[in-house]
What does this fold into?
Amino acid sequence: MKLSFIRGCFPSNLSVFIKPSISTNLLRPICFSSMSSPPTSLKPQIPLFLRPPLHSVSVSDLRKWHDWAKNLASSVGTTFLDSDNGPDLDLLCRELKWLMEDAIEDHTVFSQMGIENNQTNVRLRTGIEELYNLWKQRIEERRPFQYLVGCEHWRDLVLSVQDGVLIPRPETELIVDLVADVVSNNEGLREGLWADLGTGSGALAIGIGRILGSCGRVIATDLSPVALSVAAFNVQKYGLQDVIELRQGSWFKPLKDVEGKLAGIVSNPPYIPSDNIPGLQAEVGRHEPRLALDGGLNGMDDLLHLCNGAALMLRPGGFFIFETNGEKQCKCLAKYIENDIRGSFHSLDIVSDFAGIQRFLTGFRQ
Amino acid sequence: MGSELVWRWCVVGNGLVRCFYNNTTATATAIAKASSLYLSSPKPKPKFLILTPPLALIRITRSSSSSSLNLSQGYSSSSSSSNENNNEKKKKGGREYLEMTEQELMRECEMDTFKASGPGGQHRNKRESAVRVKHIPTGLIAQAVEDRSQHMNRSSALARLRTLLALHVRNTVDIDTYSPPPHLLSILPLKSTLRSSGPQIGPNNPKFLLGMQALLDLILAVDGSVSEAAKYVGLSTGALSRLILSHDSLRMAVNQLRASKGLKPLK
Ligand SMILES: C[S@@+](CC[C@H](N)C(=O)[O-])C[C@H]1O[C@@H](n2cnc3c(N)ncnc32)[C@H](O)[C@@H]1O
It folds into this structure.
């Protein structure tokens, strides 16, 4: 099966273009600018570290900012930690260091400069006023660090992220290892068609796109146009336009044409029970999109939907892996598969994450 | 969940990682196993030795009688563990460890992350990407916290582990027939009389570890005497001392080795 991108009407300089849900107009893809949200919000932001160093500031002014930022962080103490298990001073200081890495054109030179260099100028990727602004947002509004710098380091990738798109989590990194494990001794899966459902920043699709064989392809879907535009940016950044196709729509809806043909399905769907949302760490609850987090009453709405869909969409021998909220959801899903949709899957396995939480459910289509 | 968790990583197929969860008891066993290395009595001609590492990161406690021991014997005494690679591991010396690929080395390690707090996953935004790897055969532990992704921290921790292996796991050398291996020659200053051509390899080159390891093997074989060692590598005592002192962890390892022989530290 040949997947290709259609070039043309993407409103930014990106040539990546996203197909809408197929139900009504399978053959007439619309482009971003004709979607309901304003096109400006769909132009992905350039991460700080990729912006040109057009600003300039003296070493002493930059130090002044740094001391101010450090003080502001110190004033937090353990307040965030105590209130909602948020960041402590240690983590905030590390983030401050990373912010400097991303903002200063040559941060290693800066960190070695002594007082005698106070009048020297340093080139920045954003203005010093903006740096004050950003750090204020970090501390006062608990805006996630990754949204300040517009990127997240995930596996060996640096992925662009922005408001409206879930920041990929370290736990999820393991899914790529597990897929690599499965495809290593199975050529059919390695050269097959995969789907990443609810791709967000495109993290999983890109991680997997890089380990599949030369014929392997990934379709990545999401309901959120912002997520898709960011995913498109990331796909392009890693030169995977010919491997990953992005489609907009709800779960399996945009995949009707590949029913029963998928070699693998991966997904990290929203799985937080609705009533846990108000108590979330402020960085998550106040800033990350609810669409990416809320999994309904017991958090299982989307997971159950995905299990049912996977039985239909996977080809015989196809593989799935879903991320869950932990042991309870893993066991509940496994039980559902063993009882309610008996005969669909075999070799179910629950895999724990780095912290020992039973995080992933995997299995194969009969 | 407040206990420390231990992960056994095992590499399947071509470098793919899978992990198995062990509970706290397993951690305790692993630590006990590592310490038991120090309790077993040394054999007269050990294949290789492990010296007590000086850094706080390394969790093996110093043996009261001797700072070195017969690792191969120590290891076999604890081989009741479930690890299938035991037999293979028993045969390895320090040099073999350094020659292993990242995946091969990971296969001999447990990966350990710091305490889990709360449900994690989508609930959290915290860069809990710190990684600690423990090398089962030697008990050496290395960690990395400063990278921005867990994956990269794992690589950094493994790189650090390699340095520790070079510094602390000794190969025996036969001093009567000794001639310095090429890796050792390549880290020597050009004035060494044994050296042919080629640039001097510095600490930033990954090959430096092999040279450093060989140098420590030699210094142990001559009972910690820098002047003796200098003769074997065609340098003056001063030139070899300068080389040792120019590299912090090398200096610490040499001084530790000298201390175990009752010699004063190099300064
Ligand atoms: C927890 S996020 C995971 C994002 C990304 N895969 C990752 O691991 O970082 C869940 C994603 O599912 C998307 N999503 C939510 N409901 C959806 C639906 N009905 N159909 C498709 N995607 C949906 C959200 O927009 C969000 O990007």
In short: Chain B touches chain A through 36 residues (CB under 8 Å).
